[in-house]
Amino acid sequence: MVVFSASLLTVGAVALVPADPPAAVSEGAPGGASTLDRAIRTAEAKLAKGGQDPQAWAELGAAYVEMGRVKADPAYFPKAEEALRKSLAQQADGNGIALAGMGALANARHDFAAARDWGEKAKAALPYNAEVYGVLNDAYTQLGDTAAATDALQRMLDLKPGVSSFTRAAYEFEIHGRVDDARRALDRALADAIDPGDVAFCRNLLGELAFENGDLDTAERHFEAGGRAVPTDTSLQQGKAKVAAARGQTGRALAGYQDLVDRQPNVGNLREYALLLTSAGAPDAAARHYELFEEQRRLEVDSGANVDLEASLVAADRGDAVQALRYAQAEWGRRQPVFVADALAWALHLNGRDAEALTYADRAASTGWRSATFAYHRGMILARLGRNAEAVKALGEALRINPNFSVTDVRTARATLAKLGGAG
User: Which of 74, 94, 189, 407 lies at 20 to 30 Å from 359 by C-alpha?
Assistant: First the structure.
């Protein structure tokens, strides 16, 4: 069994069960756009002097990758690839920084198999670089290779305990149902955070963890504290809008999401806003934002990104069972983490293929992740199969984990429980 050394992270008995945020957690180091602006200007100044400078090209490419992630703007990714490939063209051998940058770029584009391959090449060139193992942890986590993900994380912790490694550790704890351990890891990350961007990043993750486990007060406290560190952080704004929606403050939530999608119209924000509009009885406005989702999806695909998972979820939201299944199957063909298993299970359920769906719902539950969404999906599948007692247990679990897990599905969960004779 892999363990964190006690000097790095004291969490319970410090044992880490082999293990995905957010996403997965973020690719690359967290930090604010201002820090990245400085990195880009510094690299550009070096390159303006002329001559070959593979390190400066690699630094510029890595900064573009992170800027694209922070701003949720895929337009940075082609620029990042161009810079990184120029670095590799100037130094083909031993250019670990550029190789790691290509891995981080592939992670950002959701091409996790490519990220794994680039990361392994970077590891061969830079076996003692912690960030390389961060790239590998992200890639293996998203591919569903839990043992390799854990090994990469442990190596990252051994080399450089800090914000990036502790937040990744928290994610591994969370997907194994070890919520208290995940919280302690994030507290340790926050204690190590100095840059305001890192503080906001850690506060957002703590807020998300609290929200996903039904603690609205703690979630709001972290989102507000993060906002004081970086007032313009859109992830924190999304968190506050989500809390408002969960509390029934619909007007405040709608205003928050409208401002959010005006500032950062990424696929996740557009989907959440459309769901809230649907719940609020505004189907025409929801339809417009689903159209904006499709436009953004095409932009991301054109930039080299893969968003089939998100497309499957939106198709399911809109009742397009055939498209939901097509996208989910395509994503499953590329990677098999538990959250893709859950999406595939739900798509199969929507197509009336519940016996198959249950197999994938069981796969989604295999790590012990305390996910209300997973439990809800499993409960609805079991109800369709006539396994009512098990359905009541799963739906009840969903509502116990997080009674506000979805602005739309919570009502369905309660209604199904009442119909089955369970406590709604």
Answer: 407
